[in-house]
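User: We ran a pulldown and think these components assemble together. Before we commit to crystallization trials, I'd like a predicted model of the whole complex to look at. Sequences follow.
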Amino acid sequence: MKIEMKNITKAFGTNKVLEGVNFTVQSGEVHALMGENGAGKSTLMNILTGLYGDDGGEILVDGQTTHFSGPLDAERHGISFIHQEMNNFLEMSVVDNMFLNKEIKNKFGLMNENKMREQAKFYLSKLGAKIDVDKPIGSLSVGRQQMIEIAKSLMTNAKIIIMDEPTAALTENEIAQLFEIVRGLKKQGVGFIYISHRMEEIFEIADKVTVMRDGISINEYQTKDVSMKQLVKDMVGREIGDFYPDRNPKFGKVSLEVQHLSEDGVFQDVSFKVQEGEILAFSGLMGAGRTEIMRSIFGIDPHNEGKILIDGQEVHIHSPQEAIKHQIGFLTENRKDEGLILNDSLTDNIVLPSINGFVKHGLVDDKAINEFTNMLLKRLSVKAQSADVTASSLSGGNQQKVVLAKWVGSGSRVLILDEPTRGVDVGAKREIYDLMNELTDRHVAIIMISSDLPEVLGMSDKIAVVYEGKITGIVDTKSATQESVMTLATGGVKDGTRN
Amino acid sequence: MEQETKVSQTNEKKSFDFKKFISKMGPLVALIILVILVTALSPGFIQPSNLLNLLRQVSINAVIAFGMTFVILTGGIDLSVGSILALTGAVTASMLVSGMSAGLALLVGLLMGGILGFLNGVLIAYGKAAPFIATLATMTIFRGATYVFTNGNPITGTKMNNSFLFQFMGRGYLLGIPVPIFIMAIVYLILYLLLHKTTFGRKTYALGGNEQAAYIAGVKTKIVTMWIYTISGLMAALAGIILTSRLSSAQPDAGTSYEMDAIAAVVLGGTSLAGGKGRIFGTLIGALIIGTLNNGMNLLGISSFYQQIVKGIVILIAVLIDRRSSND
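Assistant: Here's a predicted model for the assembly, 827 residues in total across the polymer chains.
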């Protein structure tokens, strides 16, 4: 099967989102589609699968002009789209999820559960996955759910599978497994359109790569003929120079010290220090307990042993408001669930942790709040029409800056950043790094949890590696390598199946 | 994915003003149309005496609905307000009948409403009970307690009817205007300030918008929740006092299904049941819409059986319009 999208144009209202985009994929190849958020990748895929109509151009399938009426139609013709958000019904079993809306019925119109179970097992075994199909799908790791998604595609006899950021929530091990499956299916003649932000993956898995920017397809390359630098340049439209800004830290006194912090079954004997002006990275596999340690320090979750010292003084933090009082800020990994009130204005979001400081005669001083938030929006160069727009209207990078603004505004001297650049595009990433540098220049101590190893190596001064709830080592970033950190993160052995 | 959201945002911009208008001014426009319609059908409606009468009728529901607005803004619900009204009304009445001074009796009645609301708050914030279930249970308990307390009989007596202050609350006039209207206005003003001009109000919205994010931003979510249900209970008790004074007696079945009218007023006023979105001004308008409907249909001689159907339909229409305008 060969799909050619030629000269595709699409506008929403007066807003042109695609202009003359060309994209080709065929059976047996992996074609990566790269570009920043908003470049038009998803729109292009939605046009291919018929969710949107196009305003110009044509789609050829094996040389025939084709138009799918919608995702179901595309699926019947062998094109399957695995979305980033899988939308599974977590309480329902694997087999029920797989056959949702495609239930096999017997002659009485009742569901033929045995047959569905058989088929589910058959397709999963094709991927080499041993999964209990009667378990609720929510009890499985994201990686396993991803496999089930691929099995679902195979069930519909897919010739081309579109994957949108499939590895965003996978562990290293799961990614390796996924790639194994992709390579296997490729050999059997399945073609892939692979949307991803992660450079390393593109070079590992893709045969071809097309870069999109601002609704145009910039270039198509054979992956073996192109450099990472070139791809970044195509995506951003300019040379970024070094991806990570230089760090010239000046360390002050110890800001936060944690001694022997433990919570049964979650993390044990965690001790570390972070100085003013320092970025201490927390590396490790997903589920190693990094987030849990920080949540405990911030007073969201309890710990049953250990001490927390701020400026050398022991403090007892039982709730976020106490943590904020001690000038700790916490950018959580999930900004939509924990970081932002999406339907509230930027102002309301930013001022929330500091709201008690804006009271005049018992009433809220809106004028002062507006000055305060506008100053912060400007300082963090948040791109927004005004401070009154809702947080949901911003791009991921700008949303993240709003969360940062909130904690900068509350006067944080210790800032915990949990995956600060997740879901943020390349240009905005660099801005966040610059901000981190600016903050440490102002003597803020930063703890950065990151699963992105190059980021850890590029942006930290020290790295604490967590494995199964314990710190397996704190190393100087200058002397660390991806391999050395990975070895610590997997407990010294190459086995990272924990999730 | 991001592209789509961005695009739909810009796309909406043209129709955005309209939508904002609908969500902000829609209830007011609906009220004005309703008033014009009723006046055309029954000119007596617009007479000052009828309007004052209408406002007085509205005041009880409005006071409850103001408190309910806070509750619904957090994404909660308070079904127990009608029962709190009955129980606090009965207790207040019995204290008056036994000869307690009106000031003290009113204070105890209000305090009791606050405590009953606080109880709801504790169940919801600390017991982690779903607001619907928690207040459904307390609704039944408080109603039962009212029957036990009153033995199922109305409470009335000369001492109660001789108390000026108590009579004044529900039956008094000030400058020719019924006192309940003043009470409604004062409560509105205080709660308006509380919701829109204090940090407590901001925290209420934050809690309804995203409780987890609010908590991490340092909002004492449990304490705010408890206060909000306390306010709701307090408002129910105040409404109970007005009603008992109006009727010069405390009925054990007083306030039955008042929670529904209060919720209807809040929803008609454009406050989202999902929480985080809405204004107390809308609730005032919502209460006035319900009041105008009741009053207008009475003037037109429409049977009370049909009135319920009409009220239900109006609520449905309002909700459907609201869905449309807030749909993304």
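The interface with chain A takes residues 1-11, 14, 193, 197-199, 201-203, 205-206, 209-210, 212-220, 276-277 of chain B (CB under 8 Å). That may be worth checking against your pulldown data before setting up trials.

User: Thanks, that helps.
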